[in-house]
Design a protein that fits this description.
By secondary structure, the chain is α+β, with helices and mostly antiparallel strands. The chain is 28% helix and 26% strand. Strand 8 and strand 9 form a beta hairpin. The model is unreliable at 40-51 (pLDDT under 50). The chain binds FE2/S2 (inorganic) cluster.
Amino acid sequence: MAANFKRLMADSREMSRRSFFAMVGWGAFTVASLAALWESLNFMNLPRTALYEEPAAFKAGPPGDYGVGSTTVLTDKRVVINRDPDGFYAISLICTHLGCTPRYFNDVTSDLVAKGISGIKDPDTGLAATPANPALVGFKCPCHGSRYFRDAVNFFGPAPRPMDRIHVEVAPDGKLFVDRSVIVDRHFRLKV
Ligand code: FES
């Protein structure tokens, strides 16, 4: 009788142990599944931008902070502000191939000219990279090598078109106001 009771207790302890491990296993499985589901939803879900990214519009300092001829790269915003003699314009720093962030360089053309590639000319500014004047400033994409002139016009690599120009204006408080959600014509200039 006592032996039967002991075995019963041992069996019951073993069952409890198995149940405990089964519960832990299911718990871990459930957590992992929920995490995977969350990642999938984030990947597909457009509202993700609202959850993770900064607001599309932001202020960027007064116009006097930007010299004529300057290029200001706001990497965290993925925005470039250029100031030319005819005004300001802003660029969305998103590669038009697959969306990586191009980087600014003082020379994005010399190596191509050295390889004998000719006809590197910005259709908007008329600037050309030639053996006599091989270095033009611009952007290179680290992902698949697309290159852009300073004004965002693509000229090399798989990028199918220029990077977008985005809205910039002077806010009532005198600072530049950039809105990444508003695409503008590439000839737009903010005159200040
Ligand atoms: S994402 Fe820029 S070249 Fe592919």
